[in-house]
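WARN no homologs supplied; continuing
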Amino acid sequence: MRIKLLFISLLCGLCVQAADIYITPDSSLQDAVRKAREMRRLGQAQQVTIRLAAGVYQLYEPLRLRPEDSGLRIVGATVPDASPSGSQTIISGGMPITGWKRQGMLLVADVPDFNGRPIDFRQLWVNGRKAVRARDVSDFEQMNRIMTYDKRNHVLWIPKKAVAPFITTNQKHQTSKFKLQNLEMVLHEMWCTSNLRIKSLDVQGDSVAVTFHNPEAKLQFEHPWPSPMTPNTGHPSPFYLTNARELLDEPGEWYHDIREHKLYYMPRTNEKLEMINEKCHAVVPVVETLVEFIGTAEYPVRNITIEGVTFSHTTWMRPSEKGHVPLQAGMYLVEAYKLRPQIDRPNNHKLDNQGWLGRADAAVELRHTENINFDGCRFEHLGGSGLDYVVGCKGGTVTRSTFTDIAMNGLVIGSFSPEGLETHRPYQPTDFREVCTRQEVSDCQFYDVTNEDWGCVAICAGYVSDINIHHNTIHDVSYTGISLGWGWNRDLVCVKNNRVQANLIYNYAQHMYDCAGIYTLGNQPGTLISENVVRDIAKPSYVHDPNHWFYLYTDEGSSNITMRDNWTPSEKFLQNANGPGNVWENNGPQVSETIRQNAGCRK
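OK structure emitted
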């Protein structure tokens, strides 16, 4: 680690001491941060910049930035708009897999322990490209559909043909109940998908009774919203099966046998054994979060800027351990059930369900911060969400950054109901320092995000105040582009004065409907959504209602929001169970060409 001291003259004639710390991938990021902290504490430098050379900085646990690190600057070699194949500074939670051997059509490698323990993972990248966890369909248009949904007995019935690979290899079990290790179902449910670990399959004639492990079995059958569609609706819910060696039959697919510590991969065309055996060309994620900003309301982490850094190769293991049953936008249920009779809510319609939520891990997480900035960064190859301003964050900018190949939400801001608050109750904290406020997101690219949890969104903002989302380009996402607000009620909460302006959103709803380019929930006095361009929705055949999609959508409780001068190809909008005070002015194809041309990232 090399340290260079610089002296900078200020306009007032005073001098301050600044220091640059230069490190390379064989150095420790944690040690560099500690060195910078101690230099400031000892009065050796007031401002410290850690400069990271190009290369991969592999972590075994998150890099933690605390109030004592305030004022730090971390600069990587990646320049804005750089090609992914160019020189990058990568902070990675991945581990290379080497020693591949050929076994028929497959490549097989031993999975070593990580940091002294066996590992599991839900993603694999080969030569920089995400591989496919073995599944029963390569084309989602060919997914099977459910037959019967038995809520009372917690059984889901599916066609026998869906389990043909397992019957073929388990002939003696064709007519009796049998269990399969690690097999999962991904079930399409209106605006969400559930990840359900299969406990048993019981073949009966041309049907199969499927049961699931807990806790997701109880959650899946007791929560009323969202719900799978049954055949009598005309649009029965599709599903696919994943994570079994029997399903490994297409180039680019993989399967990890966690008991044997073996990784199986079917190479794509032109992928050679020697190529994949080169260092870091096959990577599995072993860390869920790369960087944590950890402050308190009294002592926030302040004034840190990260520039030109790529955050890469994370996973999120909860679905493998407890399943994943979301309510909306990837926020998963920890308890939920239907109410009989319904609850009366003043100023709102009756409530027919209760739910308490958890939140997926992100590659970079911020708690109790002020003015934490990201410029020219990349968030890619991630198994959870990308960047998350979780709670108590004030200010901060995300500019000229790229979010791509992300399993869940791209960028998340604010609370989505605290753990102890039933999610339909209004959130108005006594201590407003809990609320995320004054974040700015501009000139960022979001594409190929939400590529595992299809119910997630590119930019997801919950209980937030005075945030500004403008001039971003969002495309090729599974569901909604930008979601703003939370709570499903029109009561006054802490959401206010937000701006969503001049964003370009297209090719959204790749897998889910009941969506929009821009979607809102709840009472948001002073919120303005203007000069955005929303176009080109996808047309998957398997959505629950082929007509239930929109360009702009103010959903339940949306109040005191202004929608103005947004360009859309037609006036396909929805105002569902809205409260008072919404203003709709000049939205649709008649909006000026200037607005249409100015939307999206600025060059």
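The longest strand covers residues 331-345.
OK
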